[in-house]
Automatic annotation (TrEMBL):
GO cellular-component term (any): endoplasmic reticulum
Pfam families: DnaJ
Residues that span the membrane, as ranges: none
J domain span: 5-72
Protein name as it appears in the record: Heat shock protein DnaJ
Amino acid sequence: MATETHYQLLGVPEEVSLDQIKQAYKKLQFKYHPDRNVGKPVQVRNDADGKCKALSQALNVLSDETSRRDYD
């Protein structure tokens, strides 16, 4: 099974600007944030938590010029 790239996870093309990466991150982080999933089934909360962690990792890599160049 192939894993998503950081770009796919954020729903942006590879040639996207840093500002667009941050916008996509904020939009998705808002959707999957643990505070938005209180009272939902455990599996939904766990999935959302995993998604939040993956989104944070994607932002960390893609927002640093050197890390992004190495990743690409």
